[in-house]
């Protein structure tokens, strides 16, 4: 889940025909980055920190699905309903659905603010699709940051994560507890454990990452774009390593 920093990301979250309310100041350089890393590794936290520093919009495909779920008045389209079911179980949504969803939002890939893709691509097919989209749009990636951490530490981070049902902010029962248990410090909302952060779904998500997403490291290594970041340490420490890898 990516935090909002001066930009409501409406064009990304709501899709075609909707503009961002306040895109904010255009940064001097528009960075175009992809963030890779197992679920729970802290990509969302890093995305928010990088967004704040570089001004690029953090774009999460998981956020688009969660937004669609929260805002479905009564009925989701069959494709979205299928996506929600996959998400609930921790499985990947089909490539066709995710690629079509990103293609519909491809103007976010040419935004003058740049972008940080968080959670997309997750398969080699999606990586080929984003490569084609960027070629068509005349844009190039600057780098792909791959955050890496031992499996046991990833499981501990994921299973202790709690998410605010009001503002979406992430907390952790051990490493980032709220002052009052179960209540968000930022907005007073109730904290929940995401369905896909439950133990049964965590195992499925980690398997999906290892089988489908880690091959992307080779894909981007071959293109000279991969930067591996050790994700052990506090969010600020990991962020400093990411900035160093980008030469910022
Ligand atoms: P995330 O917040 O990125 O962990 O995404 C939450 C869930 O949304 C994932 O477990 C998948 O079910 C689905 N999802 C998000 N992005 C993708 C993607 N690029 N490919 C397939 N499924 C995705």
Describe what this molecule looks like in 3D:
With 248 residues, the protein is of the alpha/beta class. Helices cover 44% and strands 15% of the residues. The protein is built from 10 helices and 8 strands. The strands form 2 sheets. Strands 2-3-1-4-8 form a 5-stranded parallel β-sheet, sandwiched between helices. Helix 3 (61-71) crosses helix 4 (78-89) and helix 5 (95-104) runs parallel beside helix 6. The protein is globular. The two termini are 24 Å apart. 35% of the residues are buried. The structure holds adenosine monophosphate (AMP). Residues 39, 60-62, 65, 86-87, 90-93, 98, 119-120, 122, 126, 196, 205 line the site of adenosine monophosphate.
What does the overall shape look like?
Answer: globular
- The residue fraction in helices comes out at 40-55%
Task: Tell me the number of helical segments per DSSP (H or I, 4 or more residues long).
Answer: 10
Order of helices and strands: HEHEHHHEHEHEEEHHEH
Termini separation comes to: 24 Å
- Rg, Å, rounded: 17 Å
Instruction: Characterize the biggest β-sheet.
Output: 5 strands, parallel
Mean pLDDT equals 91
Structural class by secondary-structure content: alpha/beta
Give the spatial strand order of the biggest sheet.
Answer: 2-3-1-4-8
Task: Quote the beta fraction.
Answer: 5-15%
Uncertain runs: 1-5
Please name the defining characteristics of this protein.
globular; binds adenosine monophosphate; 8 strands; 248 residues; five-stranded parallel sheet; 10 helices
């Amino acid at each position: 889940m990516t935090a909002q920093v001066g930009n409501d990301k409406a064009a990304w979250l709501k899709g075609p025909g909707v503009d961002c309310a306040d895109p904010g100041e255009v940064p001097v350089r528009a960075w175009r980055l992809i963030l890779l890393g197992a679920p729970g590794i802290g990509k969302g936290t890093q995305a928010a920190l990088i967004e704040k520093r570089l001004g690029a919009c953090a774009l999460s495909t998981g956020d688009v699905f969660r937004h669609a779920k929260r805002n479905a008045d009564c009925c989701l389209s069959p494709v979205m309903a299928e996506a929600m079911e996959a998400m609930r179980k921790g499985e990947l949504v089909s490539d066709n659905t995710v690629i079509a969803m990103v293609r519909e939002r491809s103007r976010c890939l040419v935004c003058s603010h740049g972008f940080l893709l968080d959670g997309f691509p997750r398969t080699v097919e999606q990586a080929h699709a984003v490569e084609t989209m960027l070629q068509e749009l005349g844009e190039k990636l600057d780098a792909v940051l791959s955050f890496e951490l031992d499996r046991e530490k990833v499981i501990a981070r994921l299973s202790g994560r709690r998410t605010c049902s009001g503002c979406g902010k992430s907390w952790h029962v051990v490493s980032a507890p709220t002052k009052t248990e179960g209540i968000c410090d930022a907005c007073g909302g109730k904290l929940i454990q995401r369905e896909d952060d439950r133990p049964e779904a965590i195992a499925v998500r980690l398997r999906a990452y290892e089988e489908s997403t880690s091959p992307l490291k080779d894909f981007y290594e071959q293109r000279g774009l991969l930067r591996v970041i050790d994700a052990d340490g506090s969010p600020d420490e990991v962020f400093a390593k990411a900035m160093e890898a980008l030469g910022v």
